[in-house]
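Quick one, T. Sequence first:
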Amino acid sequence: MTDTRHTDIAIIGSGPAGLTAALYAARAQQTVLVFEGNQPGGQLTITTEVENYPGFEHGIMGPELMDIMRKQAHRFGAQSVYEQVVAVDFDKRPFTLVTDRDRNYTADAVIIATGASAKMLGVPGEAAYMGYGVSACATCDGFFFRNQRVAVIGGGDTAMEEALYLTRFASEVVVIHRREEFRASKIMLLRAKQNEKIRWITSTVVEEFIGETLPSGIRRLVALRLRNVRDGKIWDEPFDGAFVAIGHKPNTDIFRGKLAMDDNGYIITECKSTRTSVEGVFACGDVQDHIYRQAITAAGSGCMAAIDATRWLETIRHTAEVSV
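Structure tokens:
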């Protein structure tokens, strides 16, 4: 194992929350290391056009937005470490982080911005057409499907919320669910069933996402291959878009048993702050937000985390100086 490298603030994660935290912390004259992980830039790097991030009148490609954020944080002295944090020790300060390259890092404060990953079906075509008709966020991408026919796959509250939101744009929304019964709450299911734009295909699973490549080279989804789980019937149903809405999983496995979390694994933060159950450890973005899950809200909480961490560091440093 190589020599340990120390920093004032270590930021685990490099999406909008992590890079905004890096920008604010670096401008506050803290030394900052951003651990970019196995997906530098977070989920926006697999997103095509982003139209709802303020400041970009005509939209911007997801990877370009994240590159701008990274360069802005670097401009003020934050440094990126292209390694994945695989273990942490929050029992004593400075905190210790171990990466997948078997390297040790220590930090006076840690900001967790590891995000949450949409649960996917894992069937053929899903990854190939992600961002080209397949999505996991209606709020992000619904606008692109104005007057088109879309599918929502799932049977919980998330699926009902996505379906209802999409009725603002789509000509028809079809909810596809593997069972006849739904996990969604009664009120959410009732709202969806009362909406005339929504229809239902139950006892059915998606076998494949089918697309085509246009002469321009652009890919697009054109249909879903469906299978009825009762009679085994398989058919192709035409769709312009498909939204996978079977839930999200926060990326918090390495923090289990070390930080307070809710039943779904989201890190619990103190009300109106980013403080976690461990003093000196902060959390921002989707890793602690299961409600909004937007780039702009993640960035906002990244700003909060940097301010919280910087103020905390100033407090403990002042206390240490006074006690000497």
